[in-house]
Amino acid sequence: YFRVLHSAHGVDIREGVGLDRLLGSDGKVTGAVLSDGSSLELDFVVVGVGITPATQLAEMAGVTVNNGIETDAQGRTSDASIWAAGDCASFPYQGGRIRLESVPNAIDQSEIVAQNIMGAGKDYTAKPWFWSDQYDVKLQIAGLNAGYDRVIVRDAGAKSFWYYRGEELLAVDAANDARAYMIGKRLIEAGKSADPAFVKNPDFDLKALLK
After folding, report:
1. With contact defined as beta carbons under 8 Å apart, do 184 and 163 qualify?
2. What pLDDT digit, counting tens, does each position of 12-65 carry?
3. Is 16 exposed, middle or buried (0-12, 13-18, 19+ CB in 10 A)?
4. Which among 135, 158, 188, 194 could disulfide-bond with 143, CB atoms 3.0 to 4.6 Å apart, if both were Cys?
5. Residue of 87, 70, 68 lying closest to 78 (CA atoms)
6. pTM: predicted TM-score of the whole model, two decimal places
């Protein structure tokens, strides 16, 4: 998406469009042309970079690269003497392989890998969670929603979105709903689900799901 802040009109969020080029002169940006041909007048630009994992050193060392530096559950690469952790590492997760680009993952995984380098022999079990403050909305996410086949929306003043695959709860997105986030996170990390009928009912106390 492309996000622009206008002082008089709030936030304009544009989905499905990218940046073609920036306009300006003398080191100052004045506008942007988007991939759909539209243009914007701008005072400043914030550019997010770094989505491609840094694997050059691993490639030079001859270790396997697969959406990042491929590791086993303990952080060891295809070369038994080389380890990897953090945003650049892809590791086993629920029968597949993922990379997690988040501060909590980088910290938790690195701690386990450091212990394993010293001989601990511990598997890293990822517990994905994320958060972001977007103006007056605090977005909190527990789990990963990849592979969901339905979404249950809970509207109890604040909204949360519960992602299911069959009867399995995969993830919860909560907007200004810290209670839904914390309860969903505890359920997911415990490998438990929640009856969608209870989740959808705004009068149901979600805390009862933890009993």
Report:
1. no
2. 778 888 889 999 999 899 999 999 999 999 888 888 777 889 999 999 999 999
3. exposed
4. 188
5. 70
6. 0.79
> C-alpha angle with apex 67: 110 to 81, nearest 5 degrees?
50
- Name 150's bridge partners: 164
150-156 and 158-165: which strand pairing? antiparallel
CA distance 36 to 17: 6
Q: Give residue 196's identity as a one-letter amino acid code.
A: P
What is the secondary structure of the chain as a DSSP string?
Answer: -EEEEETTTEEEEE-S--EEEEEEETTEEEEEEETTS-EEE-S--------S---HHHHHHT--BSSSEE--TTSB-SSTT-B--STTEEEEETTEEE---SHHHHHHHHHHHHHHHTT--PPP----EEEEEETTEEEEEEE--TT--EEEEEEESEEEEEEEETTEEEEEEEES-HHHHHHHHHHHHTT----HHHHH-TTS-GGGGG-
Q: How far lies 62's CA from each of 52, 58, 77, 81, in Å?
A: 19, 6, 10, 12
What is the bridge-based pairing of β-strands 150-156 and 129-134?
unpaired
CA 71, distance to chain mean position in Å, is 20
Q: What are the CB-based long-range contacts (under 8 Å, 24+) for 58-62?
A: 58/82, 58/84, 58/88
